[in-house]
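Re: Re: token formats

Sure, here are both.
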Amino acid sequence: MPHILAWLGLHAFDLLSAVGIISSLAFTAVSFREDTRSRRLNNLVRLTEQHRDIWEESQKNPKLARIRDPQADLYTKPVTAEEAQFVMLLMFHLHCWYRAIEGREVSSLEGLEKDIRNFFGRPVPRHVWEDRKAFFDRDFRQFVDELLLK
């Protein structure tokens, strides 16, 4: 026991410093974890709000109704500039989701792949995708194209 007290007497400052450093690192790790959770939740909320706003626009604008039509005839009525612009907006939004999921900023949503296949399975979105997918990076194009093959 006297050896321990003597050692503590000699190394008390070192011991307190080590405990302080370890406590500081633990606090930083906990804070980082909480900041990451908060950022991920904020990203999810923002992406969801953008998704809602985009689809509200399509509901309000009757010129965009054909985008959702699985029987749209592109031979008798080609894709309009307004339809193409709206689908591009959705594709850029989907690209944001893809990047956020890949970067682990949000969790992958259940049903997302089914939703993508359903959307791009419709004539207008499929046509715009095939026509303009070169605007997106290779891994995103591959992700969507592989989903469309399923």
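Second one below.
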Amino acid sequence: MIGVFDSGIGGLTVLRAFLRSLPECDYLYLGDNARAPYGNKSLDVIYDYTRQAVEFIFERGCVMIILACNTASAKALRKIQQEWLPSRCPENRVLGVAIPSAEAGAQVTRHGRIGVIGTRATIESKIYEQELLKLRDDLNVYGLACPLLVPLVEEGWAGKPETNMILKKYLRHMKSKKVDTLILGCTHYPFLATDIERIMGKNCRIIRGPEVVAAKLKDYLCRHPEIDKRVSRQGRRLFFTTDDPGRFRLRGEEFLGGKIEGVEKVDLSIF
């Protein structure tokens, strides 16, 4: 089974891409909705929340976890991989979403001017800038925190005039930098992608994380048969949330693009 973790429901966009690319695999999705968003929290808090989620997911039988949350990928992934995983579950894997998107951005940029939008924690971590410059040291990378966008998407305000007005104000900075590639560094942003593309114009390429991460997951399993053979393939989908299951299902079905059955509420504080 493959685990997908996010601070809320945005990671369902990643799961949606996985279901298209690898539909036969079993998946467990966990949304820490009660404590979302992670973007404005401290490093220690983000790590502790992520560690709790990882422990819960592995206890449920998953052999690998994708941290669909960009903030968790930026602030907690490395410590999970280097300190927690080797002593607790050395045979399992925890992967993030930042590196695949950075690789995609570096490949498609035409003039080496790449913008990244995300939560405050993701942008302040400079994870995308670091990964992009590892790939190409000639790039110009511009990060911009957009803290208002996640709650707007969570509340179903994508596409509304008020949201587009805020988007225009945020993206004005990227347009002034003449970026030719824009990485959407948050799982919620694909719901704003059409408006972002319109505002940025046809000369700016938009990197949508879910599709990129799905392709990388498929490639990863091909290159690591020792993990691939342990992934169960019965088409099961399990959903967990730390908040109200009914609300999760109602909003989550829009993000997933399909029905969600049997959402279970969990308490991560015991881990």
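The chain is about 50% helix and 15% strand. The domain at 2-96+211-270 is CATH 3.40.50.1860 (Rossmann fold).
- S.
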